[in-house]
Amino acid sequence: MIESGQNSISLRRRIVWGAVTLAVLATVLFGCTVLIPAWRDPVKFFTSRRSQAFEARVDTLWHESGLILQSLRIEGRRNRDGSGASVAFNAYTCRPQDQADTLPAFVLMGGIRTGRDAIRLISQRPEIAEMGLFITLDYPWAGPKKFKGLQIVPYIPGIRRALFDGVEAVRLAIDYLERQEGIDHERIILLGGSVGAFYVVDAGAIDPRPAAVVAFMGGGRLGSLLDWNLRHGGYTSSRIVSSFFGQLTALLIRPLEPVRLVGHISPIPYVQISATEDERIPEANALALYNASRDPHRLIWITTIHVMPYMDELIEQMMAVARKELVELGLLRSGQGQAH
User: Fold this and answer.
1) Neighbour-count burial of 169, counting CB atoms closer than 10 A to its CB (0-12 exposed, 13-18 middle, 19+ buried)
2) Which of 70, 124, 168, 200 is in Cβ range 3.0-4.6 Å of 190 for a Cys bridge?
3) Selected residue with higher pLDDT from 112 and 17
4) Which residues constitute the domain of residue 295?
5) What is the domain-level CATH number for residue 175?
């Protein structure tokens, strides 16, 4: 009987704490979505987070197969005097060692901590490396990559801040490119794959400097997208649980919703390359993103599953499709970036 009573008290405590947690979350969500105007306008939200000063430190420089490669540490600060909150992340660059003309430049963002892998792949593919100067980005997050159970709870504020800072990281990469010699500032192109597709869409919507935005396997309507991945990724089999946490997370990061921003990319060209067999981005979510975009825009379907960092051949295929589109837009020469 004593054990039963203790279990009953424990259950009541869990219910009470659950109700308190939901009440706090509801208050936070109300404040975020109703009381703060910038939250309702994602353009204003990200503009208010713009860095006013930045620095780029070269950690390593090396030469390889006619290319110059670097690893960088880029840090932006909210105030011009170097004070205020900062956005810091690792980046990697690759450019041809010998160049006769100014080069186009590409900001590439993929999955978490894939910047080094991406620059390795580029440097090993001459048909890609010769397209121009590439800068690949890691996310501005130095914490753990994986969590077990409730271990994530104390990290939530930092993760949320880092998610927002990903947009600023793309803009800081553009700042860096504009300081480089031999770069055509009128041909800076944003490339984003998987999660990175959300960031280049959002950055391209609020920054007028890119010449084009190319999203590989991106999607919109984050609530349903998170719901889908929670269930099909093996995190939960409950539709109620996945839907609740999917919609809750989408509200907490509402300014990132690409459907709200993709239309702002126009008149910059927007190219979306989606997969017919994508197990992570359902067709409905891919179409939701594309249908919210405006002219000039183009949707290309390729028959494949979702891209992963180790799928070198698929990445080559996607880059070939992107190269073809960029040639048609006049941003690349017809022979630039083709296999020899």
Assistant:
1) buried
2) 200
3) 112
4) 51-221+257-328
5) 3.40.50.1820
